[in-house]
Automatic annotation (TrEMBL):
Keywords: Membrane, Oxidoreductase, Transmembrane, Transmembrane helix. It is found in: Endoplasmic reticulum. This is Hydroxysteroid dehydrogenase like 1. Belongs to the short-chain dehydrogenases/reductases (SDR) family. The keyword Repeat does not apply. The chain crosses the membrane at residues 20-39. It comes from Nesidiocoris tenuis. CDD domains: 17beta-HSD1_like_SDR_c (cd05356).
Length: 329
């Protein structure tokens, strides 16, 4: 009986070892993957946001070309891009539906050529004229697909005006495709250039009550990744900048929401000029991921967002948060 007891004990001990080894190995693998992701994130933070500020400013004219074309470049983030690229010696072409003194403001500070084209991107009947005017510009080095729009308040899709929804589709999506197609032809002839598409963290974190806006930004992310792969054997770079919330006119009517951000998350809520200054400094960093935040605080937020719980769960959390936050929904 004692021998049988010893055998049972020994067999039981042996039986548990394989399971122990499996979970130990699994733990090592998971820990290694998390550590690699963290190291990669730290490396990206260094080369995107720290190193560009330590080295001399890069010559974007030499790297990409003489002209920067910026949609929606007379206000907000777009205006910041126009000023930052002019500071780097690039000639500026702004396409927007109001001039907002952008031409005189740039010329008063920088000795570069500035051109403004009056365009209403809410209609798709403007691109033949744009292509004609753009063709007169020699050596386009950078295209910034910046123009965008969002509804003035959090609102269910069924309550939104159909004409307004058509405008969002035209401004947020059609413009990116058509402007890229127009400018890309000349970039391919020169075999150099940079295409910047302004996305949003809303493409990663579903945003109910801004459903069409968030979905349009998801389109921009996928468009950018696909285009970057198409152009991988050329010297044309594609970047998709996906910030979190930025203080611009897009949020001017969402006062309750912006007040909440200013009170509790002010470190993540820069103005358009500050955001553009940081994002522009990353344009010369080659070999980065196609998609990144463009602002260090927002880059950190992308690490915090729990993607592993699934987009449906994130959408439900966002819905409950918005209902709690504001009576606008």
């Amino acid at each position: 009986m004692e021998q049988m007891g010893e055998v049972v004990c020994e067999n039981s001990h042996q039986f548990h070892w394989p399971g122990y080894n499996f979970f130990a190995i699994l733990g090592i693998i998971v820990t290694s993957l998390i550590s690699l992701r963290l190291l990669r994130a730290i490396w990206n933070l260094w080369r995107l946001y720290i190193w560009p500020n330590l080295r001399p400013a890069q010559d974007y004219v030499k790297l990409y070309g003489k002209w920067a074309v910026i949609t929606g470049g007379s206000d907000g983030i777009g205006k910041g891009y126009a000023l930052e690229l002019a500071k780097r010696g690039m000639n500026i072409c702004v396409l927007s539906n109001f001039e907002n003194n952008i031409v005189s403001e740039i010329r008063s500070v920088y000795t570069v050529d500035v051109k403004w084209i009056d365009v209403d991107f809410s209609t798709t009947e403007v691109y033949e004229r744009i292509e004609k005017e753009i063709s007169q510009i020699d050596d386009i080095g950078i295209l910034v697909n910046n123009v965008g729009m969002v509804q003035s308040k959090w609102q269910p899709l069924a309550d939104q005006d159909r004409r307004f929804m058509e405008k969002i589709i035209n401004v947020n999506m059609a413009t990116v495709v058509m402007m890229t197609e127009i400018v890309l032809k000349s970039m391919l002839r020169q075999n150099r250039g940079l295409i910047v598409c302004m996305g949003s963290m809303a493409s990663r974190v579903p945003t109910p009550y801004a459903t069409l806006y968030a979905s349009s930004k998801a389109f921009i992310e996928n468009f950018s990744v696909c285009l970057a792969s198409e152009l991988s054997e050329t010297k044309i770079v594609v970047k998709c900048i996906e910030p979190c919330f930025v203080r611009t006119q897009l949020l001017k009517d969402m006062t309750k929401f912006t007040d909440f951000l200013k009170s509790y998350w002010s470190w993540t809520f820069p103005d358009g000029l500050s955001f553009a200054a940081t994002a522009t400094s990353t344009f010369g960093v080659i070999g980065t991921p196609v998609v990144y935040a463009g602002y260090v605080a927002h880059e950190i937020l992308t690490l915090i967002v729990p993607h592993s719980i699934g987009k449906e769960t994130l959408a439900n959390i966002s819905t409950k948060f918005l209902r709690w936050l504001t009576s606008e929904v």
